[in-house]
Automatic annotation (TrEMBL):
Protein name: Beta-1,3-glucosyltransferase-like
Main location: membrane
Pfam families referenced in this protein's UniProt entry, alphabetically: Fringe (PF02434)
Keyword Glycosyltransferase part of the UniProt annotation: yes
Taxonomic superkingdom: Eukaryota
Molecular function via GO: glycosyltransferase activity
Regions crossing the membrane: 26-45
PANTHER family (alphabetical): FRINGE-RELATED (PTHR10811)
Protein topology in the membrane: Single-pass membrane protein; Single-pass type II membrane protein
Compartments in which it is found: Endomembrane system; Membrane
Family in the record: Belongs to the glycosyltransferase 31 family.
Domain Fringe-like glycosyltransferase: 47-128, 191-375
Keywords, alphabetical: Glycosyltransferase, Membrane, Signal-anchor, Transferase, Transmembrane, Transmembrane helix
Length: 388
């Protein structure tokens, strides 16, 4: 699905380039090995250009208008252009950066596209060779890229460009935009039937009376096949004890027990497995629509992608708090490979990421899965939302 979307965008850009008689080099990241640290690669590709423009597969571009916008900026200077975002409060995914005034720092909305002048790329290339990215974790790339470019005030801040938009392309105001978005919620055919998705909810005894009732009163009503997995068998819910003790940190033992149960005769055979925590909120109808874009016979691992040690040959993984979706074939290959936990309290999402990396199975990122803090009148909870 994503390859097809990227190829569609590439062809559209090439047609526009011919129409305006401009030469554009277009590279698809999935066709070559690339990490952000390797800006030298981009510099070599674009050394005869003035700008490097980064797009997401859902970004739509009016090339003539984009050229008009870029001509306003002196290409010999260091420019970092985009649609600015800022935090209204400090957030865990940004490591509580600028906690005293989160709005003081702006970073680009990747879906609107963002641009670097080749002069800035040249400077960043020299910097990266001397000082690689320090953070082990890559959680929100757009914020981390902006921080790296800013370099504690030594480098340029993001310059906001009004013509870089995230409006749907069919909106009247989009006529003033150089970029728009095709859709925030892709639909590729008939939604996957609810009885073809098996839902596994991870919980533990201390949350049986707190979190589980919220799940049952809200999104779980839409599930055809759902089981609650705990360290205690409570017939009133009911919960299933997988024989794995509750752990305060990682839940690797419990997650791998769920994977094994999914392939067993104890549950109905389905094409898709959704694993969520007991404080996750999910829109199952939207998930059913989203899964219409994927082939369950392929190795599909879908969710909000994080990275660990990517600058030193690390791996990507799906953060468990945002929900993890696996095709049956992906679960089969994971278990056949011999992948297992090094301890019951190991971080399940990261262990799965290591295993998938060893199998050369890509982790598919979707911004429609997201992990955030939410606030009630009396408490702050680490709830997670599935947003489409």
């Amino acid at each position: 699905f994503h390859v097809q979307q990227a190829e569609k965008l590439r062809k559209d850009l090439l047609l526009q380039a011919q129409a305006v008689q401009e030469v554009s080099n277009i590279y698809l990241f999935h066709t070559f090995i690339f990490v952000f640290h390797d800006l030298l690669t981009l510099y070599l590709f674009g050394k005869n250009s003035s700008w490097i423009m980064f797009l997401e597969e859902g970004t739509r571009v009016k090339l003539h208008k984009l050229h008009e916008v870029l001509k306003k900026f002196d290409r010999r200077k260091e420019w970092f252009l985009g649609k600015p975002l800022h935090d209204e409060e400090s957030t865990i995914i940004h490591h509580y950066a600028f906690s005293e005034n989160p709005a003081a720092f702006e970073y680009p909305d990747f879906s609107a596209g963002w641009a670097l002048s080749i002069s800035l790329v040249n400077s960043l290339t020299s910097k990266i060779e001397e000082e690689p990215l320090k953070s082990d974790f890559t959680i929100d790339l757009k914020h981390e890229v902006a921080l790296y470019i800013w370099e504690d005030g030594k480098g340029p801040r993001l310059t906001g460009v009004a013509e870089l938009c995230t409006l749907p392309e069919d909106k009247p105001r989009a006529q003033y935009c150089a970029t728009t978005v095709s859709s925030h919620s892709p639909v590729c055919g008939q939604p996957v039937k609810s009885d073809n998705i098996f839902v596994a909810v991870k919980t533990c005894k201390k949350f049986h009376s707190d979190r589980v009732p919220v799940v049952k009163k809200t999104w779980a009503k839409r599930a055809s096949l759902l089981e609650y997995y705990s360290d205690y068998a409570d017939p009133s819910i009911p919960t299933i004890d997988l024989g794995v003790p509750n752990t305060e940190r990682g839940h690797c033992g419990k997650t791998f027990a769920i994977l094994r149960r999914f392939l067993s005769s104890h549950v109905p055979k389905t094409d898709w497995l959704l694993i969520v925590d007991d404080d996750t909120l999910i829109s199952l109808p939207r998930l059913q629509a989203l899964l219409s874009c994927y082939d369950s016979s392929e190795l599909v691992c879908l969710g909000e992608r994080y990275g660990y040690g990517l600058g030193q040959g690390g791996y990507s993984y799906i953060t468990g708090g945002g929900g993890m979706v696996f095709s049956r074939e992906a679960v089969v290959q994971l278990l056949v490979s011999g992948c297992k936990c090094y301890s019951n309290d190991a971080p399940d999402d990261m262990v799965l990421g290591m295993c998938l990396n060893a199998l050369r199975v890509p982790v598919t990122h979707s911004p429609l899965f997201h992990q955030v803090h939410t606030h009630t009148h009396t408490h702050t909870h680490t709830h997670t939302f599935y947003l489409i």
